[in-house]
Amino acid sequence: MLTASFVPPPPVRELRDLTRYRKALVNEKTAQVNRIHKVLQDSGIKLTTYASDVMGVSGRAMMRALIAGQSDSTVLAELAKGRMRTKIPDLRKALTGRFREHHGFLLKRMLDHVEAQEAEIAALDERIEAAIAPFVAQVELLSTIPGVDRRSAQVILAEIGPDMSVFPTAGHLASWAGMCPGQRDSAGKHGSGKTRKGSKWLRAALVQSARGASRSKSTYLSERYRQIMRRRGDAKAIVAVGHEILLAAYRVLVTAQPYTDPGPTTFSRLTTQRLTRQAVRRLQDLGYQVTIAPRTDAA
């Protein structure tokens, strides 16, 4: 299997720099938003209980008002916009807390920081769109895979490149990416089936895409997730689906054709075929000559 790093051409390296930096900023923003939640909780403001996104228009207006010194929960609740207005009675209670100047000092800097990060992310988005222009066809192909949105497609392309000729097979790509779980056996003992280390940026994009694919309806990937999850748990199922997505990415880039879903029954059919082969091989090892024919009875 291919294990050495390959050096993509400059346009792909530049795209990779941009997508990696964007992801780092998004992670930093998420951490900062979590700090905002903590400050609100410490001050007794239970805005997160009724606002699914505290960083939405209503939430930001209420936080800015708190920072400015507004403490009247009725006035604060009236800042709700759109569907949030149906929650005004609950918001009045949620916005009655012990918000002090200390909380306002911290919250202002955190909120300013988040908004500065959002401006940086927006600038990166614009730059990425320009950098991805030569590869827009490949991004569209990758986006046909269940669970892979445009952002994930950009990251996948930036990490593996558009030219699959550097990988002899899809298996070589999966091995290089560290998304090829195996099982090591020695003297009858089963070793770890953990994946090897690969690009953390690619792995994050594949895991995120696998989460989306696991929730898709009537697809091969969603059925694969459910089958493996029942036997081996969520974490291993997600890695397995991420592996399948990477193999699918290889195929669509090599063929320049959109993803074609094999259907939810494919996994069950493949499992039946695998079990049949294993049973035949076991009987042959025991000295039997095996002939397989379908049942003709109606039972």
Description of the structure:
- The protein starts with 9 loop residues before the first helix and ends in a 14-residue tail after the last helix.
- A two-stranded antiparallel ribbon has the order 1-2.
- The protein has 13 helices and two strands.
- Helix 9 (170-177) packs across helix 12 (234-255).
- It is mostly helical.
- The radius of gyration is 26 Å and the shape is elongated.
- The chain has three domains: 21-132, no CATH class; 135-263, no CATH class; 266-294.
- Residues 183-192 have low confidence and may be disordered.
What are the salient characteristics of this protein?
single chain; 299 residues; mainly alpha; 3 domains; two-stranded antiparallel sheet; 13 helices; 2 strands; 1% strand; elongated
Summarize the structure.
The chain has 299 residues and is mainly α. It is 63% helix and 1% strand. The chain folds into three domains: 21-132, no CATH class; 135-263, no CATH class; 266-294.
Topology (SSEs and partners):
Layout: H1 10-42, H2 47-50, H3 57-67, H4 73-77, H5 88-94, H6 101-132, H7 136-142, H8 150-160, H9 170-177, E1 185-186, E2 189-190, H10 200-214, H11 220-232, H12 234-255, H13 265-285
Antiparallel strand pairs: 1-2
What ranges have pLDDT less than 50 throughout 5 or more consecutive residues? 183-192
Helix content: 55-70%
Return Rg in Å. 26 Å
In DSSP terms (H or I, runs of 4 or more residues), the helix count works out at: 13
Class inferred from helices and paired strands: mainly alpha
Order of helices and strands: HHHHHHHHHEEHHHH
Total count of strands:
2
Strand order of the largest sheet: 1-2
Main pleated sheet:
2 strands, antiparallel
- Which range does the strand content fall in? under 5%
Q: What overall form do the CA principal axes indicate?
A: elongated
